[in-house]
Specification:
2 copies of one chain form a homodimer. The first copy, chain A, is α+β, with helices and mostly antiparallel strands and 316 residues long. Chain A has 2 domains: 3-139, 60s Ribosomal Protein L30, Chain: A; 142-305, Phosphoribosyl-aminoimidazole Synthetase, Chain A, domain 2 (Alpha-Beta Complex). Chain A has 11 helices and 12 strands. Chain A has helices at residues 3-14, 59-76, 95-111, 161-165, 169-173, 175-182, 188-194, 208-218, 235-241, 243-252, 268-277; strands spanning 21-23, 30-32, 39-48, 80-90, 115-123, 127-136, 152-155, 200-203, 223-227, 259-263, 283-289, 294-297. In chain A, the strands form 3 sheets. A 6-stranded mixed beta sheet of chain A has the order 8-10-7-11-9-12, with helices on both faces. In chain A, strands 3-6-4-5 form a 4-stranded mixed beta sheet. A two-stranded antiparallel sheet of chain A has the order 1-2. The radius of gyration of chain A is 20 Å and the shape is globular. Chains A and B meet through helix 1, strand 2, strand 3, helix 2 and strand 4 of A and helix 1, strand 2, strand 3, helix 2 and strand 4 of B. Strand 3 of chain A pairs antiparallel with strand 2 (30-32) of chain B.
Chain lengths: 316, 316
Amino acid sequence: MDEFELIDRIFRRLADRKPWVEVGIGDDGAVLEVTPGKKSVVVMDTLVNGTHFLDSQPADSVGHRALAVNLSDIAAMGATPRWATLSLTIPKLERDWLSGFANGFFKLARKYQVALVGGDTTAGPLTVSVTVGGEVEPGCVMRRSGARPGDLVLLSGKIGGAATALTSPQAYADPLLRTALLYPQPPVDLGQALGLFAHSAIDLSDGLLADLGHVLKASGNRGAQIESDRVPLFEASSTLLGSSRALELALGGGDDYELCFTVPGDRYQKVVDIGNQLGRDIFCIGRVTEQGGCQIKGEQVNLKELSPGYQHAWPA
Amino acid sequence: MDEFELIDRIFRRLADRKPWVEVGIGDDGAVLEVTPGKKSVVVMDTLVNGTHFLDSQPADSVGHRALAVNLSDIAAMGATPRWATLSLTIPKLERDWLSGFANGFFKLARKYQVALVGGDTTAGPLTVSVTVGGEVEPGCVMRRSGARPGDLVLLSGKIGGAATALTSPQAYADPLLRTALLYPQPPVDLGQALGLFAHSAIDLSDGLLADLGHVLKASGNRGAQIESDRVPLFEASSTLLGSSRALELALGGGDDYELCFTVPGDRYQKVVDIGNQLGRDIFCIGRVTEQGGCQIKGEQVNLKELSPGYQHAWPA
């Protein structure tokens, strides 16, 4: 079986057509409609075997996460996802793996009406690169740079679960922790609804402190005071590790794919109501300050031992 | 040096801002303007070390080609490129290599006003994945599927040079052949101009016979008669290999990144004039027929020995 047949048989069959797709898979490029008056949003993220996932990880989880990490970025921009392109580099043709991968990818794609419109399949070390495009009302773009002193710092869900799942076989066996790691559910619906209310937003991929740090820096070197007992943890994480270690993983662990966003205090109740309508709990964990870095109040955590977030560090 | 500094220092510095880029590198996603009334075009291609390029290849050539292979697809759709996202997976941080890569990428990007707006840098086996977006007038989209019996089959330039460069050190040392392999110049300007005239188009990446085959199949299983003595060869290719072998590489070699397109006979002169204005020779190599596959008339070529185009074949 050659490359073209592979693409045809597996991906073209599963690729839903949407009204905004004029030309999809199978030509040199995709042709897409953008709703008049809206702006286009584009994100791209890559997962590398051995760095972002392991051989032992279920194939459908790899497919799910390859799309999920991008939908998380789309959500953080306040956009509605529309299309994706997929570049899949695989060492050899394993029908079962590909089929599992495709199932994970398309199940999530259908949930949010994302059309796969093109990409590339090549031979080489297992690597998955996905680009997702969406659109957004001009006034609803959420940037990292909009946080203002006095803003509340909110989270779209519990954090630290994925990092906890990696700490032991026992943790990995916990259904909620395992799901947080293998099948994160980025708050796409919430992101679309927040654009009118949030001053700033970022998706949590590198760990709360690292990602909130990006927001504070981009917003003019602001600071934040985070109340540690308000950081929403997974119950299983606290039970297994103790609350102090669970908190450390929540602050520094990464792979959460929840939103961290800031809103002025008088919009807090409105945002909680929106969350309720969408079945999502919104957690207020602190405030943006004029300056002074990010301070953690409350339970003692060893900040020095915190991972500085998920970074790929090379020898300089 | 960590990932974020790497991205900041090398790529952000070189990324030109364009009027259509509202948010570029440095947020969760890029925000882009689409010209009212135009359609959006998206392409994605990946280069893997060891498959699509070699360790010995100059870094600026890898950067150039990573963008060029995508611009070639954009050209084949009749679109104008606007933005790119780049996912770069590298085993270790080699400043000289990265700098060379960036120089090759941005030199070509500037030539066609393509803004780098985002992407991803990860640790892993050397792989470069690029997505390019552009826009096109609704009536100017070129598809693979539009070829009609009687259409002339045209090429935007000489072919077989890249494949010849790989045949021997002597061939690789020839400046024109080497340039064809390392720094292909996709006809972006010509692609934009052809949309009103061509019935169909494809970019030549897998070899003329394979790619023309895609057009004929997509156009309702049409055939074509190609006159072998009209296929435009590199002089150095014929000199080094003899005209018969040079022709075989032109028909089956791949990596040309020229356009193959079909036009009705009465538009031929207009297309040649457009080519002249853009400094590009247009070559007519045959005609589309009702059916009968792709026939090569003239010089005897051993079709069985032709590579079936560039495909990544896995064990089934």
